[in-house]
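Q: What structure does this chain adopt?
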Amino acid sequence: MNHSYQPDSSRERSALCNVTANVNALKSWETYQNLSRYKRSVKELDRFLAMAGRSSGCRLRLKNLVYPDLTPVKSTDLRHAFEHPEKSPFYAYFEELADRAAAASPEIIGISLMFLSQALSAFSLIGCLRRRTITSKILLGGGLLTSWMNDSNRQPPFQDMVDACLPHRGDQALLDYLGVKQTVACGLPDYSDFNKDLYLSPARLFPYSTSLGCYWNKCRFCPEAAEKKSFQPLSSEQLTADLQNLREKERTGVIHFLDNAIPPKHLNRIIDNPPKAWWYGYVRFEPALESKDYCQALYESGCRMLQLGLESGDQQVLNEMRKGTRLSAVRRILDNLHQSGIAAYVYVLFGTPYETAETARHTFEFIQRMSERIDWMNPSIFNLPLLSSEINDYETNLFYPGDLSLYADFRHPHGWGRREVRRFVQNEFLQDPVIKSIYQRTPPSFTSEPCCLFPACPKPARLIFIRPARFRVRNPAQTGSSILFLQQIPACV
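A:
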């Protein structure tokens, strides 16, 4: 990253002077007792990063990287990043990685691409590696690549930039690529060699999945359903063994269950085999949660926050969406979670084809009534997946112009278009004092991830916070190959 910073205002000078103080603040528990202090540190770090990205012509923030003239949904722009890696604000960092890769001489270099904000940086890194004339094979995988490759009529043209694209589950796809006849069960990763001091947090979250895909998989227009992803749960035996391992390794940790929705049988297993660590994750509004005793059992197992997709406060809209959710149950569940000490992070979705201005206001009223039971909230506007089986029912145009776009804009059947929806959300929904107070509690940039660190989720004596690896070298005995993993390239390194 170019370290020639030229502040253009007093705010930028303050941000430059306070970089170290703000980094240390985000690593201190005291900051998380004061949301205003946290927001100030995040905003100043964003200003600092904006200065750092200026020489590269990009808008750099803690949560993403945006080029005014490049977009990650255009393969030509990804190729531009590949051919001109020196234009990346992370070029010096990628050069160092390329030097290390050349010195290690692994047979395979694997890059996991998960989010759009990572795509341009990932291809800049690939360009750096190719410039070194490294003989290693470069493999590209990850969730974003999988979404791109799920459309058989529109395959990403990356063949000359990487040696192979491995969609779906990366561990199994890698073994299949190597010709190793072995089935891999998703389970407990090994993060023991991670440097916990590199992260902007006073604690570390331990990411873990009990399943892949979604067990419900019925919601209309859900990307999981549109891409026809299969549901693959861990066996009860594997989950029990992993929970035992977590008890031994992360006695005072915080576990983030990454499932699209933790299956009910796995919630039961967690209750029966508590990891002796605090945890949070996504769940559906399942009937079991209507029991106060069940919610209390979840709390006693270590649950401190649940993320729940309400989407709409109108029953007819929920029925049309095939959510399988009853608003009467939602009320009881939010009451039970509140009384049990479990924080609720609720997701609301506006602008689906089944919604009207009137039913959107039903959601408005529902959130108002339940406001004392909702700790955090994420309102969003609906995007129509291009792979949806119902996309031909609507007049559409690309939401993002580009051959790799995953979503489309559409003519709403009730005239409740995106412009009207956005106006309603910004000028009515979020301006209501009660709803605004919930929304303003949401931490900036990182949204849900730091929520368990704030007072709504009282902290334990010590927490563990771990992120996916940036640079790792392994020698898997089962393959006999040396493999360099560069996992989940961050938008901001």
